[in-house]
Amino acid sequence: MTAMGEAMNRIVPNLVRLARKPGQVLLVAAAVPVAAFAVLTTIFGTGATSWTGWLPLVAALVLAVPVALLAWRRERLQRTTASLDPHPTIVEGGGEIVVIDVTTAVDPRRAQLESELGALSEAYAEGQVRTARWLPRVEAAQRSLLRAAGGTVNAPYLKDDLRVTLLAFVGTVAAIPLGVLGTFVTAFALLLR
C-alpha cells in the first residue's frame, strides 16, 4: 500500500465518524416530513373518488427513494470504515544494524519515493480521463482516488459509486422542503373535504 492509501485509511474513518451525527440529523430531518406526507396522502387517497387521488402518494414515495438510498449507503460506509483500524500499530524495530553499500545498492528511500511518485502520477492521469456520461468529474475523482489508494482492497469505502451517493444526498436535501410542502398541502386538502 502506498503512503497515500495509508493516509486515506487514516483520514476517511475519522471523517465518517465526524459526519455520523450530521448525517443522522439530515436523514431524520428528511424522513419525518416525507413519512408524514406519505401518511397524509394515504388518508387522502382512501377517500378519493378517482385514481388521481393517489398521485400525491406516488410523489411521497418518489421523495422517499433518495432518503432510503442515502440511509442504506451511509450504513454501508459506516460498516466498511469501522473495520479500518483508526490507530495504527507501531512496532519497534530490532536491534540490528544494516550497512548498505551505496556504490552497488539502490537507496531504499529513493525507491520508495519513486514508487510513491509513480502512483501519484498514475492517479493524476486517471483523474484526467472523463469517460462517464453523467457527473464525469466525480467518477474521474473516484477512479483517481482508487488508483492512489491501490484499489478497492486498500480502500473498500470507494467501492460504491460516489455519483449515486451524491445524487441521493441532493435528493435527500431536496426532500426536506418538498416533504414539508407536500404535508401542508395535503393536510390543507384534507381539511377542505
UniProtKB/TrEMBL annotation:
<keyword id="KW-0472">Membrane</keyword>
<keyword id="KW-1133">Transmembrane helix</keyword>
<feature type="transmembrane region" description="Helical">
    <location>
        <begin position="25"/>
        <end position="45"/>
    </location>
</feature>
<protein>
    <submittedName>
        <fullName>Uncharacterized protein</fullName>
    </submittedName>
</protein>
<feature type="transmembrane region" description="Helical">
    <location>
        <begin position="51"/>
        <end position="72"/>
    </location>
</feature>
<feature type="transmembrane region" description="Helical">
    <location>
        <begin position="166"/>
        <end position="192"/>
    </location>
</feature>
<keyword id="KW-0812">Transmembrane</keyword>
